[in-house]
Amino acid sequence: MSLLKVTDKALERMGQLLAARETPALGLRFGTEEKGCSGQSYVVDYVDEVNPGDELVELGDIKIFVDRDSLLFLIGTTIDFEEAKFSSGFIFVNPNEKSRCGCGESFNV
Fold it and tell me: In what side-by-side order are the strands of the sheet with 88-93?
């Protein structure tokens, strides 16, 4: 099982985000943090400095870093990007999720 799967749509959006940033970034960091009513929430941020223990996934020109504390939560996750009329964002399809809160902000493994 691969660490992450990323759809073409998500890769395209990641490239747009990196290209639009005023100061160049090394890539994007995907991870989790304790938040919400179910326990964990997904986070995405720019990477200006690699942290010890970061796992690197390179997909063409896009570098995705996963922090050490999030690895077990994200193994096998597919990252997609969805654009709707009133919202847009990365979508995480995570086979490790056991439950998700009603508002969709957090999950539990």
Answer: 4-6, 77-83, 88-93
Separation CA 77–CA 32 (nearest Å) = 12
Q: State the pLDDT at residue 104.
A: 52
Q: What is the 3-state secondary structure (H, E, C) of 40-81?
A: EEEEEEEECCCCCCCEEEEECCEEEEECHHHHHHHCCEEEEE
- Give residues with Cβ within 8 angstroms of 37, minimum separation 6: 101, 105, 106
State what percent of residues in the chain have pLDDT above 90.
55
Does the model's pTM come out above 0.90? Answer: no
